[in-house]
Amino acid sequence: MNILITAAGSYGDIAPYTGLGARLRAAGHEVTLATHDGFAPVVRAAGLEFRSLPADPRAAQPADPDTRGTPTTRRALMRRATAFIEQLGTGMADAASPGTELLLLSTTTAPLGWHLAEALDIPSAGAYLQPTTPTRDFAPVVGGGRSLGGWGNRAAGRLSLRVVDRLHTAAARALRARLGLPPATPHTIRRRVEAANWPILHGFSELLVPRPADWRPGLDITGYWWPHLAPDAQLPPVLEDFLTSGPPPVSIGFGSMTTDDAEHLTTLAIRALRRAGLRGILLSGNAALTTPDSPSDDILTLPTPVPHALLFPRVAAAVHHCGAGTSAAALRAGIPSVPVPFTADQPFWAARLASLGAATAALPFPTLTKLPLDDAVTRLATALTEATTTPSLRAHAQSAAHHLTTEDGPTTALNLLPHPTP
90: Cβ–Cβ under 8 A, 6 or more apart, which residues? Predict the structure, then answer.
C-alpha cells in the first residue's frame, strides 16, 4: 500500500513519524512523509520518501518584537497558529501523488488533510501525538492541564475544537477551491468525519493517558512511536568524555522553544545547577542556551541536538519543556523530570508526569522567568535537588520505563490501519 503521512511543526511533532513510517515500510508498504524541508535528512535517514510542506515554524522569527519567541499567551498562540495554518494550507494540495492509497494525518494536518482525502477519494486516518477528542476524563490538552470536572472537561473539549475550526476557516476555503470541492466549513467537515467514526491512532502510552471510557469507537491508543535511530548512532566524543568524567549530570534543554533572553535563561540554569551541587549538560536548542562565562569542568553546552534515546539513560534527571516526545523519552530512560512547560500541550504532559510520580511539580516557564533571578535560581535548584535525591521519583520513573518496554506502538498501529476498498 502506498501511504502518505503528513506532519507539521517542530522536531518533536515530526520525529515519531519516522519510527512509525520505518515500521510500516518494514511491513512492505511504500511510505512517504510530507513535512518541512529542514527535516528531509531525518526522514530519508529512516528510509522514507520525503515530500515538502511549507510553513516551517523554525524559519526566521517575525520582525515584530511583540510576536517573537515562543508564544506563551493564548492570544499570541492563536495569532501565530492562524498564520501557520494559512501557509500550510497552500502546500497540502500538492502533498499527495496520484498513487497515494492511504493518508495518515497528524493532529496539526488533519483538519486540512480531510479535504485532500475527499478530493482524492481515498481512506484516511488520524495519527495523533496528543488526545484531542472531548472527554469527561480531562480538559483539552491546550487548556493548561487543570481538570474542570466531568461536564466542564467535555464542554471545554468541544469548545476547543470549535476554536480549531475557526482557525482553519480561511485555509480550508482556499484549499477546497483549489481542489475543486464544493464549499464546506471546517465544522461541517469535522462533523462528517466524526459521524463516520473516522479512525484515530494515538501514538502515546495508556500509562500516561488511559483510554477514556466515553470515547467513541475508532479511537485507539497504540503506545509510543519512537523516533527512528540508526543502529550505529553514537553520542559526540566531547559528550561521551564529559559523561564519563564524573557523576551523572542533569540535562537541561527546551527543544524547539525559543526565548527572547537566552543569556538570562543560561545564567538561571547554571546558577541553579551549582547551587544544587550538580554537573549539567545544556542542550542549546532554539532557546540558544550558551556556554558559561568562564570555562568549567561541571557544565557542558551542546550546540547541536543529540538523540534523547542515547543521552537520557546516562543522566540523573532532565529539566525540559514537557513536549510530548521529550516527556516520553524521559520516561523511557527511567529518569525523573523537572518540568518547565512553556505553552500549548506542555502543562498537560507535565501534569501527567507528576501524576505518575516521575516528576517534580511543574515550574511554568512564564512564571519562573518573571521571578527575580535569585528567587528563580532557588526554585530551580530546589527542584533539581528533589529530582536527584528523592528515591520515589526515580523508582516511579523506572517502573514506567519497564512498562514501556512491553508496548509496541508502531506494530499496533500497523494492525489497525484502514485499507483501501478493492
Answer: 54, 174
